[in-house]
Design goal:
mainly beta; Immunoglobulin-like; 20 strands; signal; Cadherin repeat domain-containing protein
Length: 300
């Protein structure tokens, strides 16, 4: 029985490991549409000239036959190798690169580097040229974010540590004026997570409200109140898988507050791939149930 249990645990562990290992993310050789990656060839003599170009053709040694619909060179595709011995170029892949050069297109495009010499002294004239290439297969942009309300719907919290105070003091005046009651505060949370990347990331969001009264919000060190601009809130640079949007509201008797979060944009801050707007999660709302109103005490 123990052997069966151990084997079962090992199998479950392997399945969990495999699911994580095969999570899709943008890489240099399988870049997302709209992503940016750096490509380098090392071990080159300082001072040699380099030229990068792309072609879907194997053994294409004529740079004039290069294609231009792959995207753009963010850094210069030509230059001289410095003392690091590295020829390097940065490419931002086109939004439709996977359609043209992906598995359903040409099934890849080759990034070539040509190394040559342009000098005129005898040593330089003795240098010919050489080429290397690597196959790149762009894929559809799968970067996205998730949005979840962690406790919808909820009742107002009746927590003395959050200012709830039910005891009233009654004045001796004829009206028996009441004082001292405090409805307290409640906390609600939304969780936003990154999908198909382990890089630093960012998102912006809108916060909508109904019958909200006074409240504060915080996310990743970004803070605001009901008086703040509640559209296009920038969550800053995030280096964890998930982050929490926390809203603390002042409870109101006889009201049903509602808060909504809409993710407006999201970006991988390393590859610069942006989540496709149509794939972003829709509006997620949280409702705080009504706190029954209790009027003043009056004794007869």
């Amino acid at each position: 029985m123990k052997k069966i249990l151990i084997l079962t645990m090992l199998c479950l562990g392997f399945v969990g490991f495999s699911a994580k290992s095969f999570a899709q993310s943008s890489t240099a050789l399988a870049p997302f549409n709209d992503a940016t990656h750096t490509y380098q060839f090392k071990g080159i003599t300082e001072g040699r000239e380099f030229q990068f170009y792309l072609s879907p053709t194997i053994n294409e040694l004529d740079p004039t036959n290069e294609v231009s619909d792959f995207g753009t060179f963010v850094t210069s595709a030509t230059g001289s190798v410095d003392n690091t011995g590295i020829a390097s170029v940065k490419i931002k892949w086109a939004p439709g690169a996977s359609t043209i050069y992906g598995a359903s297109g040409t099934n890849g495009v080759y990034l070539y580097v040509k190394i040559y010499e342009t000098g005129t002294d005898p040593a330089e004239l003795a240098i010919c040229e050489n080429y290397k290439a690597v196959k790149v297969i762009p894929v559809a942009n799968a970067f996205n974010v998730t949005l979840a309300d962690l406790n919808d719907p909820s009742c107002p919290e009746l927590d003395p540590t959050k200012d709830f105070q039910p005891i009233v003091t009654v004045a001796s005046d004829p009206a028996q004026t009441n004082s001292g009651y405090n409805a307290g505060k409640s906390t609600i949370q939304f969780e936003v997570g990154r999908v198909n990347t382990s890089n630093d990331w960012n998102f912006t969001f809108d916060l909508t409200t109904t019958n909200a009264g006074n409240f504060t919000y915080s996310v990743n060190g970004v803070n605001g109140t009901q008086a703040s601009t509640l559209t296009g809130i920038d969550a800053g640079t995030i280096n964890t898988d998930k982050v929490t949007i926390e809203i603390v509201l002042e409870n109101q008797q006889g009201q049903t507050p509602e808060f909504g979060i809409t993710i407006k944009s999201a970006k991988d801050l390393v590859t610069l791939a942006e989540a496709i707007a149509a794939n972003l999660p829709g509006l997620d709302k949280h409702t705080v149930k009504e706190m029954p109103a209790i009027g003043d005490f009056f004794g007869i």
